[in-house]
Design brief:
Helix content is 32%, strand content 26%. It is an alpha+beta fold. It has two domains: 168 residues, Thermophilic metalloprotease-like (3-Layer(aba) Sandwich); 218 residues, no CATH class.
């Protein structure tokens, strides 16, 4: 059981993550009924900081009914919720506690309805993330995890460990996390290329030359806002970059990942990219490879329909290095997996909101095992091995 004190502490950290700067900021708080205590504490925290909260939540029953009720048609789901979009236009920040409580609800959803849902929320993402110029730079945002026994069962992890990853992971004092992240981040000053290998076949490089380095301690700083980086995830704990989108090549091995909308697991994924672009025909996996391929093709289709300036669905969008001390193993949940000490993740697709140049409905992070070796090549031509088998090398 999560104590009231921890709920309040997590709510405070989640509220801090959107950096309320002035009285009257409008904050939308969205989640599910299973985490209602947390949603309300976030709302109270927002009020204490002078913001004005609006809380909305649904249940797994409601979500599953959308997918399974034959009287609810895909053509209805596909229609953008214009009344909701108008509210999004007027908010200052968007806080989401991830739902459903039982992620397997999406496993059973008909593909036609999931495709319709993706189309319906594309205009919402245009506003939230400033994909279109009239909405730039977008809204401040935070996506945060919250544990449930149903989700722990879904991720095949004992509940106590799952709760520790999330609740204690969010509760790490920002000062402690800032110290860890700063210690890691200093190795990337004046970096040109980053090389990553591991014993499972990962072997790639990306270019971060003249790209911003972001230290994610869970607090949205004024400096990040100035750069256009308006949001993040909790638990926090990573150093990340928007790499040069048309450079870099190699292979990434990801032991487990989960597709965003179907919530279907894909295991032992190998992804090959060249000149910064994912080679979809060379991707392999132990299961559900068709789910991965279909997801990329579906986002590409939406990107084309949205007339983005250049299709970047398949280009490298992020390189991140996890360093949250309380998260120790991959379970297929990206909000915790990408923060694992000694792991690296590469995302393909969108990165404009944090210093890159790509606009896309796709942003999929693929996380390595937490045992990487990493070498940094600097602008002066020198190289330094900074990580061996997931551990930082002593200076």
């Amino acid at each position: 059981m999560i104590t009231k004190e921890k709920i309040i502490l997590c709510a405070e950290n989640i509220t801090r993550s959107v950096n309320i700067k002035k009285d009257g900021e409008l904050i939308l708080i969205k989640g599910a009924s299973y985490c209602n205590d947390l949603l309300e504490e976030i709302g109270l925290s927002v009020l204490r900081k002078g913001g004005i909260p609006h809380i909305t939540s649904t249940s797994d029953y409601f979500e599953e009914s959308i997918w399974q009720d034959e009287k609810i048609k895909a053509k209805t789901i596909e229609k953008p919720p214009l009344h909701y979009l108008e509210m999004i236009k007027n908010i200052d920040a968007y806080i989401v506690i991830e739902y459903p409580e039982d992620p397997s609800v999406r496993n059973r959803a008909p593909e036609e309805k999931l495709d319709a849902y993706q189309k319906s929320i594309a205009p919402l993402r245009d506003i939230l993330y400033g994909f279109k110029e009239e909405y730039a730079p977008g809204k401040k945002w935070c996506y945060a995890a919250w544990p449930s026994k149903k989700a722990a069962k879904f991720y095949n992890i004992d509940y106590d460990t799952y709760e520790r990853f999330i609740v204690d992971g969010i509760s790490v004092p920002s000062e402690e996390l800032k110290k860890i992240i700063s210690n890691l981040g200093k190795f990337f000053d004046e970096a040109k290329k980053i090389y990553v290998t591991d014993e499972y076949g990962t072997d790639f490089w990306v270019s971060v030359e003249n790209r911003v380095k972001i230290l994610d301690d869970g607090i949205l700083s004024d400096e990040q806002i100035a750069l256009g980086d308006l949001g993040g995830n909790l638990p926090a704990g990573e150093v990340f970059f928007p790499p040069n989108e048309k450079q870099g090549e190699g292979k990434i091995f990801c032991p487990i990942t989960k597709e965003r909308y179907t919530h279907k697991f894909i295991k032992n994924v190998e992804l090959v990219f060249k000149e910064g672009k994912l080679l979809l025909d060379k991707v392999s996996a132990d299961n559900n490879l068709d789910v991965l391929i279909d997801a990329f093709k579906q986002r590409e289709k939406i990107d084309k329909a949205n007339n983005v300036p250049e299709i970047r669905t398949y280009n490298v969008g992020e390189l991140g290095i996890g360093c949250n001390p309380l998260i120790t193993k991959p379970i297929g949940y990206i909000l915790t997996d990408e923060k694992i000490n000694g792991s690296v993740h590469v995302a393909f697709g969108f990165n404009k909101s944090f210093g890159g140049t790509s606009i896309s409905q796709m942003h999929w992070d693929f996380v390595t095992a937490p045992k990487v070796n990493m070498t940094v090549e600097y602008k002066d031509g020198s190289k330094k091995g900074i990580m061996e088998n997931g551990k930082l090398v002593d200076e």
